[in-house]
Task: inverse folding
């Protein structure tokens, strides 16, 4: 009997990871309470701890806009005679 694949939302993941970080219950108890595998709880907890600094502005993301100065400078240097 196969169980269908479930997709858990971010709120649920955060709730489970925070419960694991608290340490009030064992991993097995949390797995039974939330009906998920203990390995999944461990993975979500590791993700939470790795990204916790981002909540307080610990790391900045790279700008989404690409730097166009270098490609635009190279366009002026192309030998146009070779293209035609």
Result:
């Amino acid at each position: 009997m196969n169980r269908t694949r479930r997709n858990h939302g971010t709120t649920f993941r955060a709730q489970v990871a925070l419960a694991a970080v608290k340490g009030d219950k064992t991993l097995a108890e949390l797995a039974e309470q939330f009906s998920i595998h203990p390995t999944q709880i461990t993975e979500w907890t590791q993700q939470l701890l790795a990204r916790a600094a981002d909540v307080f502005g610990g790391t900045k993301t790279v700008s989404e806009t690409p730097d166009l100065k270098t490609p635009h400078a190279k366009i002026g240097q192309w030998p146009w005679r070779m293209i035609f």
About this structure: Residues 38-55 form the longest helix (18 residues). The chain has a mean pLDDT of 83. The chain is about 60% helix and 0% strand. Residues 8-56 form one domain.
